[in-house]
Amino acid sequence: MPGRVVALAVVCAFAAGCSLPALAEQAPAAPAKATAPPSAGAKVAAPSANAAKVAVPPVCIEDGKPYDRAALHARLAVLGGADLEGRAPGSAGDLAARAVIEERLACLGLAPVVQPFTAQNGRATANVYGKLSGSDPDVGDEIILVAAHHDHLGVGFPGANDNASGVVALLAVAQDAAQHGASKRTIVFAVFGDEETGMTGSYFFAAHPPSDVPIGNIVQVINLDMVGSHSSRGFVAAMGTFKGFAATKLLAKLDDSYPKINVGLGGKARGSDFEPFCKQRIPYVFFWTPDARCYHQKCDTVDRIDEKAMVSIASLAGDLTRTMADSSLDLAATQRRLGCGVTYRE
Ligand SMILES: [Zn+2]
Predict the structure, then answer these.
(1) DSSP state of 149
(2) How far is residue 238's CA from residue 218's CA, in Å, rounded to a whole number?
(3) What are 115-127's pLDDT values in tens digits?
(4) Rounded distance between C-alpha atoms, residue 199 and residue 209, angstroms
(5) Contact 230/261 with Cβ under 8 angstroms?
(6) Beta bridge partners of 12
(7) 176 and 322 in contact (C-beta within 8 Å)?
């Protein structure tokens, strides 16, 4: 029986959690002004002994099934584990998390690039992205951007769901895409820093796009933020999937292969890394599971993650990414016509 598709009518202020208006008040502060790259002498913490322990195998495109639960659990245990001390921007844990991400993107052959910037706390941090170039002569330059943030609140707040789960899902989608080889369109995997204080990293990326990721070429964003608590409310939201959008049609079909998860289509979101791109008229799909009990709490630990559903959500996001990258639909035309379906009044 296909997974139950429920229409989401709520407005989700993400950083505060969603679905129940009561949670919406905690929406994050207004997005930060694009900040300059870290100045010379900016404090970069030396990795602590704990962080230094993280080791990743070198060659990995074919090192397993992309959505193998044991492999995803192992990565979650590292990124959401106590050793990374809650991955506050500029901390040793932040540095170690980025090392894990870079290493994985490198051994997937996606040539990771580090984009440094200064976090709201004044410390040096960075975005990391990898790219799988498109093969089609006509739409090969169009970009599907898969996004997740790697930072969290710091010591005592492991952030297993927020957002080690999203980073783990993104890396699984990256392996899936790498195993399939080039799609028609280009796929960029971007892991942003300093999201918790107002999406500082993604706003920086959108304001200072790397030369090989022109913002005008991005035709779709797929954002993964907190995909580890499907059991909390019994559904995963796929927000930004409004009527007439390419992703909405495709997702409603793809979802049939995942009967064990409930996918909520529709719904408008605020406050995660899709936002700076949406403001530039780039449509988004935002996969998010509400976490009623441990959102931004010390109890957001690896042992609480609904891994079975997380694996399905990651796999569904992977199907959507590859389907859109190979789609014969004119995504650029839809984007020109509909933008991201949300208008922002600043
Ligand atoms: Zn988050």
Answers:
(1) E
(2) 19
(3) 999 999 999 999 9
(4) 15
(5) yes
(6) 269
(7) yes
For the chain, the domain total comes to 1
Of 88, 33, 340, the residue nearest 204 (C-alpha): 33
In a domain, 154, yes or no: yes
Rounded to whole angstroms, the Cα distance separating 335 from 27 reads 27
Residue 343 lies in a domain: no
Cα 211 to averaged position of ligand 1 atoms, centre (Å): 27
Cα(185)–Cα(234) distance, rounded to whole angstroms?
34
Q: Which amino acid, one-letter code, is at 306?
A: D
- Among 35, 177, 180, 167, which residue's Cα sits nearest to residue 102? 167
Compute, in angstroms, the gap from residue 202 CA to the centroid of ligand 1: 12
Please identify every residue whose CB atom is under 5 Å from ligand 1, which is an ion: 162-163, 225
pLDDT of 61 reads: 86
CA 163 – ligand 1 centroid, Å? 5
Q: Are 316 and 263 in contact (CB under 8 A)?
A: yes
Helix (H, G, I), strand (E, B) or coil at 203: helix
Class of residue 55 by CB neighbours under 10 A (exposed 0-12, middle 13-18, buried 19+): exposed
Higher pLDDT, 8 or 75: 75
At residue 57 the predicted structure's pLDDT band, cuts being 50, 70 and 90, is low
Confidence class for position 112, pLDDT limits 50, 70, 90: very high
Asked whether the beta carbons of 228 and 294 are under 8 A apart, the reply is no
CA 275-158-191 angle, 5° bins: 35
DSSP string covering 259-282: TTS-EEEEEEEESSTTHHHHTTT-
Strand-pair category, 284-288 with 236-239 = antiparallel
Q: Which residue has the tokens 């990256």?
A: 174
- Residue 66 CA neighbour count, 13 Å, CB half: 22
CATH (domain of 77)? 3.40.630.10
Tell me how far the alpha carbon of residue 231 lies from the centroid of ligand 1, in angstroms.
Answer: 18
Question: Is residue 128 situated within a structural domain?
Answer: yes
Ligand 1 centroid to 332 CA: how many Å? 28
**Which structural domain, as residue segments, surrounds residue 18?**
3-338
| Contact by Cβ (8 Å): 162, 152 | yes
Residue 345 lies inside a defined structural domain of this protein? no
